[in-house]
Fold each of these.
Amino acid sequence: MQNFIIDIVNAYGYAGIFLLIAIENIFPPIPSEVILLFSGFVTVYTNMKVWGVIVSATLGAVAGAIFLYEIGRKLTTEKVERIFSRGIFKVFRLKKEDLRNARRWFDRYGSKAVLICRFIPFMRSIISVPAGMTRMKMNIFLLLTIIGTFIWNTALVFLGRLAGNAWDRVVLYMDYYSMAVGALIFLILGIVLIKKNFGGN
């Protein structure tokens, strides 16, 4: 995967970065860290400019976010309830009340969630779906998405440029960051579930 990303950036420049980041937002397993860090390094030895890379990456992220937002708009709460009441999804043991409470929570705190989740692996992509489901105003969604992705992209592109040939080592540290954040999210979810099931209501 890493070699594929490097080849695309080297071959297509800004357009390649836009496309890769757009796809990464739709398919989170594609590592944005590799794309951004390598793209930052590329500005050291090519004519590509740092701000050109950042703008291309931000536009790509926004394009991917809009795609997922529109998917979310097609998913009503009732459709999600039907999905989670079938097959393997039954293991989540989600009730209609849980989903509706989640939607009400997003209605209230959605703007903060959209911004904060842009800095969290995987969540920075998936957060666009509930934003669409709750019919979050598009102008607010776009503003928060642009701000969050711009900050994230700027930090990683400059980090890649500063790291130079060692950019791939930085990727390893970003992997640790991703694992730490993921573990923290699971821990929080675990605590919430324990309190819900054994809280002695």
Note: The mean pLDDT is 79.
Amino acid sequence: MSKKIKLNLPITGKVLALTEVNDYLFNKKIMGEGFAINPKENFVYSPVDGEVILVYEAKHALAIKTDEGLQILIHVGIDSVKLEGRGFASYVKVGDKVKAGDKILFFDREFVELKASIVTPVVITNSELIDSFDINFSSSKAGDIVAEATIK
């Protein structure tokens, strides 16, 4: 029996197709199925209930694993790793349990935008677990349901 997982929009902003991201690993979906956001605010909220399984040292990206096993990577900006954590603050660490809507990350949008792209991909890195992935491109506010993944 398949199960549906709803993903909330983690940052207020415009939802984009991954094909619009200026990075080969994301726009060719090599990293996984998902969407991107052109952020309008500085805070990132958890899109799902789950456990934090990865927080990059540069604080620009983190991953959350749902109880169903989906691994969701939120990567704030393109080339933002070169900022070496400047302009970022994480509110979570590996092993923390989070609920959809919990504040998990801060980034100084204006500072990051001066040095890198702020377009933020959100991808399911183990997309082989899903049958379908539907995106609501009209979502724009953090907490809106932006996507639904159907697990095999």
Note: The CA atoms of residues 50 and 66 lie 4 Å apart.
Amino acid sequence: MTFILRKMVMEDLPSVLKNEREAYKFPWSEGIFKGCLCKGDECWVISEKKIAGHAILSCAAKESHVLNLCVHPDFQGRGFGRKILDHILSVALTKGAESTFLEVRASNSIAVKLYEAMGFNEIGRRENYYPASINREDALVFGKELL
């Protein structure tokens, strides 16, 4: 598999938004992505001829937080999620983070398996965190020590 990892730029947003909408029922808005890019979050894309996925990481006070990780459904199951997650965790280390956290939908068993395989541990649950078709859905909170 040949892929390229690079920083996200504003010109990537049409592809990033398309991937979000294909992958999620409740995708992030363009405004959220623009905010992340403008405030200096670590925004990355992974591509194989076209953008296959993206990830957003926030770093502060020796901690990092995976805010978004998305792989277009056509590219899922091919290691793109693992590659971009591994990359942003290495970025977190270079930024001085000693640990990282993330939330994931309780129903997203594929993502949960990836995070567990990458050394994350479930450390909590946020009730009614995510929008859902009916009511709201809980988030599982995961953490990982980076050092």
Note: The beta strands are 4-7, 42-48, 50-60, 63-71, 99-105, 121-131, 136-145.
Amino acid sequence: MKQINLHSNKPNQAQHAWQQPIQTNNTQIGFSLIEVMVAAFVLGIGILGIVGLQVLSLKGTQQSSMRNQATAIVYGLAEKMRANIQGTIDGKYSLTKAEFDAYSCTSAVTTCEGNTASCDSDQLAEFDMNKVVCGYGASNRTGGIKAVSSGDENVLSDGLIEVGCKSGNCANGEVNIKVSWTERAIDKSETVTQHSDFIVLNTRISR
């Protein structure tokens, strides 16, 4: 009887498959120039958007700051006028635009603060308006609408305050206080323009 050998000398391919190197068709290494350019373009658009938001944020902060300053000036002066009713009804707080433009912050006024101060209603009104227009301090007048010099010493950009009475008569105590200023803005054509803004308070100063 012929004996059949069931064993083969041929190596088992399944057992030695792990020894074979893995073949791949992907020969790309790193990034291509186009991918880098696209990534840089997208990043640049994002940075421009962030810069634009920062500009709008700064503009909004500046506008809010000026409006808060103007509001404080208006209501602060109204309280001063209520504390000096006689000076108010006598029209001593009245101030037109022409008078504001000609107002001199270097002129001496009677000091009406401190325990030793004694001022009548007219002197107190002059002292109050000088504080509002020119600010505080002796040599460095800061914090006013119209300081000694321009720039950061002024609390408002091109600030203006006008105080008047209804029908030009302050006897009934009806007064109006207007504070205006200008803001710089840049439109889509990158042109710098000036925009005016203002706050008006109409109130009655009564006894």
Note: Strands lie at 135-136, 142-143, 160-165, 174-186, 192-204.
